[in-house]
Amino acid sequence: MGNDALSADRATLEHVDYRAVQASPEFQKLRRTHRSFVFPVLGACLVWYLAYVLLAVYAHDFMSTRVFGSVNVAMLLGLAQVVTTFAVTMWYVSFANRKLDPDAERIRTEIEDGAFREAGAGDAEGVAR
What we know:
This protein is mainly α.
């Protein structure tokens, strides 16, 4: 089923010049868009996680402050870590669906249409770009 489709495409993708794909302006834009989202969000998440760890190590009194019942600040911040993970995941999926996937689909279509053939791979012109 899924493997059949992959093997059918494999014959048409054997002679793709992937260096030309990577150097193309469309791919560079896709990579830049991806990185402009991922790196800042990753940095913020790492700071958030590191802050939690540092608070747990060095601010025992603050982290053990009871908020209600047996629930303390450390438990709430730990739960916030989990919630943050799910929120960032949903945010990234939404971003990818809106910004990355359409561009990636265009690049894939160009590759499958033969726009990035290696020189001597079945057409006299070599690379079509």
